[in-house]
Amino acid sequence: MQRRLHHGNRGRLRSHGYFRRLGPGIVTGIADDDPSGIGTYSQVGAATGFNLLWAAPVALPFAIAVQESTARLGLVTGRGLAALIRERFHRSILSIAVLCVVVANTFNIGANLGSMSASLQLLTPIRFEVLIILFTAVLILTEVFIPYQKYVQVLKWLSFSVISYIAVLFFIDADWIEVAKNTLLPQMSFTREHIGAIIAIFGTTISPYLFFWQTSEEVEERGNGDALEVGFPDRGHMQAMRGDVTMGMFSGITVMFAIMVTTGATLGARGPATISSAEQAAEALRPLAGDSAGLLFSLGIIGTGLLSVPVLAGSTAYALSEAFGWREGLSLKLTQAKAFYGVIAFSMIAGLFMNLAGVNSVRALYWSALVNGLVAGPLIVLVWILARSPDIMGTHSSGRASQLFVGGAALIAVVAPVLLIFAV
């Protein structure tokens, strides 16, 4: 029997219906520009101006390499990342890896839910507590009862509202020579502020939850166990996956660059600034939208939040389900995977209570990225070991370029927190 191309026609990237056909990679790229990402990049731009723009082109090959490795793991083995860690490493390593991603994801969910509610308050007088409870309830119900592929088709387009940050580049008064210089000539100040910002940037660009999500979604797209068949995946499947992942991460980091330039030229124009509210963050869009800046900002935060919170909760559910051997998958009904969906609901409720405890939602976005950055290093090392193993990957084990960039991403993620300890 001839196999259909993985994720339908996603391998044909140059014809009508491009965005409709893209697979998990574009979802991952968009989810990467979640409220946590928008908040982090905005804070970095406001605080450091153009000084860290070089982080965007530097992060791109590392982000692509890590996500390609996780996607290849799922595509080749037919198993999720936590399942592969359980098979390959000691149980204690699995426990630590899953605990790290659960903690980071829960904190990230809370930050995203809070920022979505704070953003909507720019448009409505409804109390923050009411809004966040409504968002949590809606997201739980949609992820549990609506097939994710139908849900995400709508949100893909809504979340493209973050492209407004690219559009605003044509309206801001920026020193483009300085932009080019700081983009192409890296300059690093070994201060706590700059090193912390680097950790946050890499933490939200190369996020641990995306590793588990990407691997498991590749498995779901093609059906569990298919990778055991001889001759699968073939060259067409691998090219399609790589094109999908590359476009997803390129899109995400392009938006990251635009946000940092925009906020650096507006909020950070008069020197380092700290963003502590949604109103302040929305001001970066005023050159484009004027008095509608709050509306445009809210659409971007809410759109990416509606997409990324299910990805975060789903990532947590995949990790725990694979670790404990539960039935898993967004393609399954609630009655078929009660524990899996229970984790999704519980993780969102935990994020809800984090906000009800009084955490500043906008500042929490930056701190959630920092937590992701601290957790990412050990997990990238595990991905590097798994993806380069011929015993697991056969002829699809990582090549030299992939090993170099994934290893480099792990090195940055491990060394940066150490530098933070000794920074002044």
Automatic annotation (TrEMBL):
<keyword id="KW-0812">Transmembrane</keyword>
<dbReference type="Pfam" id="PF01566">
    <property type="entry name" value="Nramp"/>
</dbReference>
<keyword id="KW-0813">Transport</keyword>
<feature type="transmembrane region" description="Helical">
    <location>
        <begin position="245"/>
        <end position="267"/>
    </location>
</feature>
<dbReference type="GO" id="GO:0034755">
    <property type="term" value="P:iron ion transmembrane transport"/>
</dbReference>
<feature type="transmembrane region" description="Helical">
    <location>
        <begin position="364"/>
        <end position="384"/>
    </location>
</feature>
<feature type="transmembrane region" description="Helical">
    <location>
        <begin position="295"/>
        <end position="318"/>
    </location>
</feature>
<feature type="transmembrane region" description="Helical">
    <location>
        <begin position="157"/>
        <end position="174"/>
    </location>
</feature>
<dbReference type="GO" id="GO:0015086">
    <property type="term" value="F:cadmium ion transmembrane transporter activity"/>
</dbReference>
<dbReference type="GO" id="GO:0005384">
    <property type="term" value="F:manganese ion transmembrane transporter activity"/>
</dbReference>
<feature type="transmembrane region" description="Helical">
    <location>
        <begin position="404"/>
        <end position="423"/>
    </location>
</feature>
<feature type="transmembrane region" description="Helical">
    <location>
        <begin position="194"/>
        <end position="212"/>
    </location>
</feature>
<feature type="transmembrane region" description="Helical">
    <location>
        <begin position="93"/>
        <end position="114"/>
    </location>
</feature>
<dbReference type="InterPro" id="IPR001046">
    <property type="entry name" value="NRAMP_fam"/>
</dbReference>
<dbReference type="GO" id="GO:0005886">
    <property type="term" value="C:plasma membrane"/>
</dbReference>
<keyword id="KW-0472">Membrane</keyword>
<feature type="transmembrane region" description="Helical">
    <location>
        <begin position="339"/>
        <end position="358"/>
    </location>
</feature>
<protein>
    <submittedName>
        <fullName>Unannotated protein</fullName>
    </submittedName>
</protein>
<keyword id="KW-1133">Transmembrane helix</keyword>
<feature type="transmembrane region" description="Helical">
    <location>
        <begin position="126"/>
        <end position="145"/>
    </location>
</feature>
